[in-house]
Predict the structure.
Amino acid sequence: MRLSIIAGLAGLLALLGCTNNPYPEVDRDQKVLYSSFGEAPKTLDPAVAYTTAEHVVTGTVYDSLLEYHYLRRPYELIPGLAEAVPEPETQAGERQTYRFKLRRGVLFHADPCFALSQQGRNTREVLAADVAFQLARLADPAVNSPVASTFADILGFTDFAKRLSDLRKSGPDFTALPIQEQYKRAGGIEGVVVRGDVELDIVLAGPNPQILYWFAMPFTTPMPWEAVAYYDGKDGRPNFSDHAVGTGAFRLTVYERQHRFVLERNLNWYGTRHPEAKAPGATFPTQIDQADIDAGRIDPAYAGRALPFLDRINFSREREGIPRFNKFLQGYYDDGGIIKESFDAIVKDDRLSPEMVARGMRLDTEVEPTVFYVGFNMEDGVIGAPAGDRSRNLRQAMSLAINVEDYLRLFLNGRGVPAQSPLPPGIFGYNKDYRNPFRQPDLPRARALLAEAGYKNGIDPATGQPLKLTFDTGNTSAQALLQYEFFVSAWRELGLDVQIKATTYNQFQDRVRRGAYQIFQWGWVADFPDPENFLFLLECSNAQSKSRGPNTANFCNGEYDRLYREMKNLPNDDRRAGLIKQMVQIVETDRPWIELYHNEDYNLSHAWLVNSKPMGISNPAFKYKDVKPAMRRRLRAEWNTPVRWPLYLMLLLIVVATVPAVKTYYRERL
Amino acid sequence: MAAYLIRRLAYGAVTVLGVLFLLFILFFTVTDPDDIARKAVGEKARPDVYVQWKKNHGYDRPLMLNRTHAATDSRRYTDTLLFEHFRRMLTFDFGRSDADDTPIAKRLMAGAGPSLSLTVPLFLLGLLVGIAVALFVAFFRETYIDRAVLVVCMLTMSVASLLYIIGGQYLVGMLLRWFPISGFDPDAAVIGRFLALPVLVGLVTGFGADVRLYRTIFIEEMNRDYVRTARAKGCGDARVMVRHVLRNALIPILTNIVIAIPFLFTGALLLESFFGIPGLGSLTVEAIQGNDFSTLRTIVYLGALLFIVGQILTDFSYALADPRVRLS
């Protein structure tokens, strides 16, 4: 009993000095940005890392040759480590060359791996050969990069992979060689030509202007061979997939993958060492949109200043949304999304609630380069192209029955923009005034079209029963089934009998492979902000039935394909816009898809976080952001003073409840 | 006793083999290597990337019979997923995670510390509070205190643990602001700050069941003849309760305690997940969500081993605590 009392008192004393601040006191005046992550990165190898969670680290630690302008929309490429965005030079036989010239004097992060190439040194200058090495890694089958096929247009890219693979099969002598030596002996990639220390030619077999976007991603970052060779997971060294040696404005100093990671300012960064160069990727943009200033997103005082502004970025793992959001409300995270459970309390009529405004919070929304849609299998005998005009009318009618505004309100708190075409806002070719005539809910017109298709009131004349169709899915979660039921109910209004066929993902994939499906729901998140990255989803050579490509609708239209090929290689000009318009019109009439929505990102930030503008493209922008520690400290203290009276009350209640019993007992006993 | 131990170990070995076979059947009928590969390399990856991933991770083998080898060749049976599964588990060569390629043994070692830092204080405090309160209410049985505590016990048992977690975070972390809502720092100076709330929530969650069980045991003991004899000999209440009732009630309590000890290593799934504690419970949740078959089978296998160890330990501790029990 005595022990319990002592423990209780100790607990009480501990509570009197308690705080809900999860961070050390010494950091309170530091320029530290606090953020969280839900999904842990699987790898930091920039040749493999593909998820948003991974790009948060790789996109910050590894600089790319090109970058996106932080403020301009539609997105615009600017030079990063390269001195300029290269223009294509056409060679004989349709070949095209992009010549990259790297900035001189760019250093890698200080790291012991560099002692491999020269005893005693801990960094070295970035060379064009480092970019060539990384491109060879992308081709290397052992690296297994998910984007390798994207670079197949580089001359000799696939041949290099094959040669490397054959040499590895030839015996252990070759595989025992250091990786850079293996690449050298395999002959390198023909279309990657290193011209001196800082110049590099990328030779393409044919025009492919979209390839430049891939040089604005960490996949193509300069990679020192020393890092790949040194971090092999042996003798206490981590694996290369858990260690980053880049050139970015921040370097990774703590990496506990499942728990937390810390990025610290890189004092060797080219922008910090040479601020006088005013490199576009190392200087805050001088042209700032008035809308960004008015919304409080961007502070114009930062225009032209040298990046970065933060000393450190702390990421903590938060697996669950509720604690993450509550910690954001307490001021312990500087920004964050909004959980579904609290959406209505935080956002009212698309604006922040007065309580949140009073706390100085800011809500930024941005439509992400995504498209979600219901697709039809165009090779199906009933719903697809073989049934000719009849099936076209049927698809048009089904499209008219879906009210996407209701869908967004019911399932996504309205966080989405109804899609009129495959192209989302912010992408060249998007027309904000365009209204797809088959994407405005109109049941009478839908019924008329259905009758025209020969299915009056949804009845199939062959059976005398409602026309039976299947909605195929590999998602069996309750939430997903509820969403599919939304579509089925809408089509039931027309008299159609659509059955949801929910199976495991593999069974669904198997049905897709066999072409045994009719209707499905799918989504696409763009890799880069170009209309090609959306319109290729309906190009015939990408059809699932032909090449296992992403055209799951198996849509094949000769005219669409001709326009696609012409549009693909054009710059963003009026001619390209005209071609895109024609392609969108074909999709509008043929209806291989019912376009649903483009996802909208809602981001909350506290008043002390400056220059935070959402980027729909997965491209972390920490070097542009800044915090005001004094304001943060004051507001955190104001919002988090402990409330102690319930503790005293609880103790009092226990005493009050217990004492009479004890007294009575002893009175009776004595 | 040695014969008993050998027999129990033999039963345990059969159980482990059964668990391993069940695991194999369960995992490869519910999911398949394609599914695991898809999760690992992402939705957008081309089919050749899946194929290469499966090859790199040894999932390109047939399930139980490799017909590419001749009937007389032992590789017909050993070059299969089934054999590889048994080989890895029985030799404790757990391999690498399907999700992120980390050595599984390394992740288990890294997660054991945070898990134990939560489960050990929770276990000890739970025991202390449970026994203290149960002794108290048993002493005041059939009074308003006893009835009030029983009502509280029933209430705490009727509410889902998830609600305690979310409610605890909201009440203690958000409204009262006593402790951080979530987070973890192994630094001895601050670790208490992060563990206070999950331990408190864990205590409340287990309070009802523990107190009711211990109270029943204590009351049963209090009605025995030796208690009456002790009182007749003039023993004080405290002495009777602590020296006699508590000591004799320890035998059934001990079985409860010893079987729980091995599971302290496997962590607390929900508590760790919601409070951001990077322990083995979190690892399990993550392996389930990420289709990380190799990690999950290791955790389930180790769980089965620990359960068997716990049972054997319980039997032996029972014999040690009560000289009347003989193991044969």
Summary: Chain B touches chain A through 63 residues (CB under 8 Å).
